[in-house]
Design brief:
CATH architecture: 3-Layer(aba) Sandwich
Strand order of the largest sheet: 1-3-2-6-7-8-9
Number of domains: 1
CATH class: Alpha Beta
Radius of gyration: 17 Å
Structural class: alpha/beta
Shape: globular
Strand content: 15-25%
Helix content: 25-40%
CATH topology: Rossmann fold
CATH superfamily: Alpha/Beta hydrolase fold, catalytic domain
Distance between the termini: 63 Å
Amino acid sequence: MKIITYNLKVKKTARFCVRPASTAKADTVWLLIHGYAQLAEDFLSEFDFIKNDGHMLAAPEGLSRFYFRNKIGASWMTKEDRENEIKDYTEYLDSLMIKINEEYDLSGAVFNLLGFSQGVHTAVRYFIRGRQHFKNLILCSSDFPADADFGILRQRLNDSEMYFIHGTSDSAVSNDTFDSSLSLLKNNGISFHDIAFEGDHVLNKKVLSDLFCK
């Protein structure tokens, strides 16, 4: 039996949540990429520790939703038809950034891109492929994607900073896996801040607050 596979571009409605700055003009913008089986609103609520008046937070939701442990969650991609899924969410995130730049006064703002867990791979790929410039790339509790374009990553980090934040007792990612990612980055000449904390597979609010909310 002969099977022919095609790709067809279709429109899809994406959802994202925003917590605007409490000032007329934002001085810092956070693009927050959630982990596997999370939703945008729930993930955004975890950043209640960011109390700075001029900070605006935007959390996009993965394009694929599903039932997970009697709840609904979202995912950014699978390995199936992966290149098209990466292209789709890169275009989605570019459109989101255009939208919030139109809706809010973000002129002169510093942009931070944060990924947690599965969202780390999405954040890295968007940092490399997307149109938006980010001052800080913040990667929390995940390995680093080995298929990243390290040449472009090095170029983009010329005027940006990357933070690799991980727990020493992460139940989802082993210390050996973290060590492999650290070696991968060093072997490819990537400049980054390695920050380890005592804890599990979590978003470490104290570390983030100390680094970016003073």
